[in-house]
Amino acid sequence: MDRASALCPRVRASARALFDLSGPTDDFAELGPVATMDQLKVAAYDASASGHGDAAAQELLRLRHVIG
Questions:
Q1: Half-sphere exposure (Cβ direction) of 38: Cα atoms closer than 13 Å
Q2: Which pTM does this prediction carry?
Q3: How far apart are CA 22 and CA 51, in angstroms?
Q4: What local confidence, expressed as pLDDT, does residue 34 receive?
Q5: Integer Cα distance of 32 and 64 in angstroms
Q6: DSSP readout, 1-68?
Q7: What sign has the CA pseudo-torsion 66, 22, 56, 29?
């Protein structure tokens, strides 16, 4: 759980980048590691659905390299 908590800011940054691809959105609440992963899934879906699938894939790949 410590590692997940430590990576939360980076995952949230990726979610923010993905949300930005699909258009302007309000900031989302910081709810901990589990909710952050759900927010990332929603952000990836929204970015893909709005025609930014390639950019979303690149952002998720960058995140994967950080997570290890």
A1: 8
A2: 0.85
A3: 8
A4: 84
A5: 19
A6: -HHHHHHHHHHHHHHHHHHHHT----------HHHHHHHHHHHHHHHHHTT-HHHHHHHHHHHHHHH-
A7: positive
Quick: pLDDT tens for 11-44: 999 999 999 998 877 777 788 888 899 999 999 9
Q: Which amino acid is at 24?
A: P
For residue 39, which of 3, 66, 65, 13 has the smallest C-alpha distance?
A: 13
Output the pLDDT for position 9. Answer: 92
Contact, 8 vs 60, CB < 8 A? Answer: no
Give residue 61's identity as a one-letter amino acid code: L
Angle formed by the axes of helices 33-49 and 53-67, to 10°?
150
